[in-house]
Amino acid sequence: MSLIPSFFGGRRSNVFDPFSLDVWDPFQEIFSGPNAPSSARETSAIVSTRVDWKETPQAHVFNVELPGLKKEEVKVEIEDGRVLQISGERSREQEQKDDKWHRVERSTGKFMRRFRLPENAKMDDVRAAMENGVLTVTVPKVEEKKPEIKSIQISG
């Protein structure tokens, strides 16, 4: 898997990750913010849901930043046998008649992230937990069978 370093903070990007089904939107910053059309703000919620995916010797671990959401507002599903789908919706805060907004930066609307899992993923044992606004999805890996080695006596 080829990962390229990002120009921002040394974080890694998954631009060339064959397992990621993400869509990168280069115009996200242009079309987001309080003056953007509501459809553009809702689309930015899809792109701006941050996910870290790491592989350990035992599992694939996904950490998803979902500040302010309850576990009931998030769905974790396996689709087509090998696609992990994380989705939900951030509701817009109710506006009061006398409120005067100075800045709106938090995105609202539906979000969905999808990841094609590799063959070594144990799909029947997927676990998810939410704590302090971070969803952690753990996909255990199938144990690799070590080749059986049988020593042969050499005669002579």
Automatic annotation (TrEMBL):
SUPFAM superfamilies: HSP20-like chaperones. Keywords: Stress response. It comes from the Eukaryota. Gene3D superfamilies: 2.60.40.790. It holds the Pfam family HSP20. Residues 42-156 form the SHSP domain. Belongs to the small heat shock protein (HSP20) family. PANTHER family: HEAT-SHOCK PROTEIN 20 FAMILY MEMBER (PTHR11527). This is SHSP domain-containing protein.
